[in-house]
Amino acid sequence: MSLLMLITDNWYDIRDLGNVSHEILYQLDRVLPYSLVYIIAALMGFVASFLIFVLPSQLFVGVLGERKIIGRMQSRYGPNRVGKFGLLQPIADAIKLIQKEALTPKAADKAVMYIAPIVFVAPAVLLFAVVPFGGHSVFADIPVSIVYFIAISGLPVLAAFIGGWSHANKYSLFGSMRIVAMTISYEVPLVLSLLSVVLITGTMRLGGHDGIDGIVQWQRDYHIWLIFLQPLAFLIYFFCVSAELNRTPTDIAEAESEIVAGYLTEYSGMKWGLFYGMDIGYALAAAAFASTVFLGGWSMFGLDRWIPSWLIIIAKTHLFYFIFIWTRGTLPRLRIDQLMTFAWKFLLPLSLANLLVIATEKVIWNKATDGNFDNFWVYIFAAVNILLSVAAVFIWARLLGYRPEATPKRPRLVNTASGYVPIPAPSREVR
Amino acid sequence: MTVGLEHFLVVGALLFCLGLAVALSKRNAIGVLMGIELMLNAVNLTLLSFSRFQDTPHKVAGQTFVVFVITVAAAEAAVALALAVSVYRNRQTVDVDQLNLLKS
Amino acid sequence: MHGAGPNLAFWVLAALTLVSAGGVMVSRNLLHAVLFLIVSFLGVAGFFILLSAPFLGMAQIIIYVGAIAVLVLFAILLTPRAGRDNGETRWAAPGVLLSIALMAVLLFVITDTKWTTAKDAPEITAADLGQALLSTWVLPFEIASVLLTAALIGSIMLVRSPEEEAEDALQ
Prior knowledge:
The structure holds three protein chains of three kinds.
Chain A: H1 2-6, H2 17-31, H3 34-73, H4 89-99, H5 110-127, H6 145-153, H7 155-166, H8 170-201, H9 215-221, H10 226-229, H11 231-244, H12 256-259, H13 269-293, H14 309-330, H15 336-368, H16 375-400
Chain B: H1 5-25, H2 29-53, H3 61-91
Helix pairs in contact in B: 1-2, 2-3
Chain C: H1 4-26, H2 30-50, H3 54-78, H4 92-112, H5 126-134, H6 138-159, H7 162-170
Helix pairs in contact in C: 1-2, 2-3
């Protein structure tokens, strides 16, 4: 009974932390000057979104869980020495990184080299400002949140670039050029896929609640997640964002075996640690953004009446992050020309076609219902879009000459440790 | 002191003049281009501050103009940098003092 | 502009923008100049947000910081044997004098004019901007897209390497 008391619309309603912070700020506003309350609100938002959610997730899901899961996927133990199940491994890592010597090459541009990690960290903090954790608990509820997100997520590339350039090292410069070239290439289909989302929802605000338009609110209103309505946009977004995040299937910018960790070559100690930690931070931000835009954000088909909305979005974020870990643990690294070809020849035409289809559907929707948009058409569009997406992906891949690889019927590497058995040659030509 | 239109205009004017100084005095062609970008930014700033503080029948006109200026600036930067690279291919320099082929 | 927040933001942004624009002028290393330029662009984006045009501020960050600055960096890296110092030409002094004179004129005009200012900021959303671009200003909009296409094709043709052109000539 006492639990049910909490689920009311009083200020101590734990389903929406925005109510609590609103109440605290309202009480403070009576006694303190306005500008101080402003700063306190900013600090509270920072603490709530970053220190409670991002940092622990980063440490325990990003640093530890990722290594554990990848270890399990690759048939080995992850970290298991420090603490129970290796739980203290992130802390041990941090201590190791802090006490390492910070090396600086003689020819390096020292000021730029020191600034680059800081510039790399700042946007990661800024990105979480627009992620809605509930109807009212958005730190910065700006009406152009999607554009904000795209704009801010373009900044770390510059930091990686100047960091790589400042070392006066050939391999670092290669890494920098690669990351910039790849980010610019993948930015185009990414923006186009998000444009189709904006087109169908008609708003650029991420959150929204009853009465305020927003992408999450749109998905609540029509009882559908955008991943079902726009599967192709979701796929394109996923590929593009994993390419921009520089994680293993696409980490050509820091490929250890080719260019010796790219722009991170000369970084050591905590400067390297900032890059490494914030890579996970960006992955979390991308996961939170994707689950907000495509997976319904903090809403869960009415379940958000009963479960705190911030728990829902955190769970979705971690689910999405698991897919990042999965691709990282199982896929081999691609070559740079393969990645560029994929962006320009595969993703870009598909995203343009997707935009065209969505625009047509929006017009049909508008005409068929005389401006009163209803649910019925959304479900029809969802079915049509799923079919069209599958067809488009397969046909376009065929046209470009991608074929399903010859999949091995049994494990090619012999599972006994006794000896090396050469892999039998594939039966047909593998492209 | 409350910040008004004049303050924004002063910032825009200072930025424009700094950009002009950079564009006129730099030896590297890419440096000249950077000055031009600064000037375009100052123009955008001025346009937007007029659009914010002046009561006009066309409220959106100022912002629309800024959109076009940004578009043209992007196109201009791409072409100018392509020119710089192509000049470099032929002359091995982008120093505007040394690009005096017509002066025999 | 009412309240302490916007006023403070104005002064901070003004300092940031102008100091980093000065950095473009005085820094001796071309790449440092580009970094100062980026900071200046960010400051101008902040001004846009302060002038209640958040969409344009974001567009400024995407286009100037994300695209133009990167282009400039690429152009510097693609001209490796050119000078990396950010020095002045022999004709620097007249240029600087000219800009100082222009600054004096502009400052005089700004301070001398009595500006009539509106009280409140007009509410302009991104939707309004898009509506205006596709109704009232649709002709310049289309011309801008043609201009972008021309710039795209032109710059690709300009930087094509001679070997590629020779290959095309053979076919």
